Amino acid sequence: MSLHIKKEVPSLSKDPLQRRRWHLESLARKIGIESIRAQFPILEIIVRGKPLVYLDNAATSQKPKNVIDTIARYYQRENANVHRGIHFLSEKVTEKYEEVRSKVARFLGAKVDCEIVFTRGTTDSINLIAQSYAYPRLKPGDEILITQMEHHSNLIPWQVVSQRTGANLKVVPITDEGILDLTQIEQVLSERTKIVSVVHVSNVLGTINPISELSKKAHEVGAVIVVDGAQSTPHMPINVQELDCDFFACSGHKMYAPTGIGVLYGKAPLLESMEPYQTGGSMILHVSLEKAEYAHTPQKFEAGTPNIEGVIALGSAVDFLQSIGMHEIYHYESALVQYAYEILSQIPGVHILGPKKPRAGVVSFTMDCAHPHDIGQILDEEGIAIRAGHHCAQPIMERYGISSTARASFAVYNTVDEIDQLAEAIYKVQEIFK
């Protein structure tokens, strides 16, 4: 069996999937999909004799030419250390470095630049919060609230803190549909809750959590709320003021920037109240053999020589995103994910995890006839890159009684034709294993 999509005039088609396909093609033309794809050199490569179809964006996105050129230019013409040089190169690169901090602050909706801390990524950001904010403050009997859909990066740091402080770790369950059971939140939130840490978009289910509502509930009991924004920041507009979160973490490499660079947003009073958990050069005002006086926020959290080229390239990635527009990206990708959900759900023996809508970024699925690793291998033979495994979210797998899924995840450069190719390849999996 194979997939045959008729490309009819939409007004003549009675097939909802065909009409959705036409709508998606219209959105693609509106954002200039061909121009967008032309900015990604890697999309031109051939994999096993076929053009690359890259659908592993939740793991890491590909990089546009302006980001690649920024890294090359830095090492060719700008390389110097920041913040502590008085020569031309150091002054110029320091200026660029801090300009990116301002740019990221505006991109995320921070009130002031000092609310933006550069880290190695979302994992590093959450560990910073756990060690510098939570660990010194929590005591036995306090509670940390997380959800059943967390990535390990937003689970293990809280396990460690709870074990070391005697605080209790509470978990909000998810429904069969793959959304938070909000009725349970009211039962577990109390004056003992000190921290609520929740993923914005699940990297397995695609679920978009109601952060503003959760922030309100957390603040009503005096808790702070931490948001893992790794899977939301590349796909939708983010305004931390509207979300009213206390901390927000994201990774550059998922939003078209290099690996090894990330962002922690924190409300200024909270960051000022925190002690750094990494110390060394660049984060002090004065040091003697007996003691040190730390620098102000955010420098006190950026010990040592930072990932300078990563920060500057992160600025170029933000430029790329803003050149398209985050609202436009959200509308296009939402239609792309919805098309993928509908076309895959029509394939017999394919089971998709998570809600039909709202959904962002990913479609994770299993097949009756094949293990996810077999699915991934066969799709690779077709030039299609997906991910297979537990996606660093084993509690979700346990919730549904499975060990792993196949996961297709999307970016703004993906197309409706690539979704059709994915569906055709899945039919091929069925043919092989039937």
* Strand arrangement across the biggest beta sheet: 4-10-9-8-7-5-6
- Strand element count: 17
**CATH top level class name of the largest domain:** Alpha Beta
For the sheet with most strands, the description reads: 7 strands, mixed
> CATH topology of the largest domain, anyone?
Aspartate Aminotransferase, domain 2
* CATH architecture designation of the largest domain: 3-Layer(aba) Sandwich
What helical percentage do the residues reach?
40-55%
Description of the structure:
- This protein has 434 residues and is of the alpha/beta class.
- Helix content is 42%, strand content 16%.
- The chain has a 7-stranded mixed β-sheet with strand order 4-10-9-8-7-5-6, sandwiched between helices.
- A hairpin with a 2-residue loop joins strand 1 (46-47) and strand 2 (50-51).
- The longest helix has 21 residues, at 88-108.
- The radius of gyration is 23 Å and the shape is globular.
- The N and C termini lie close together (11 Å).
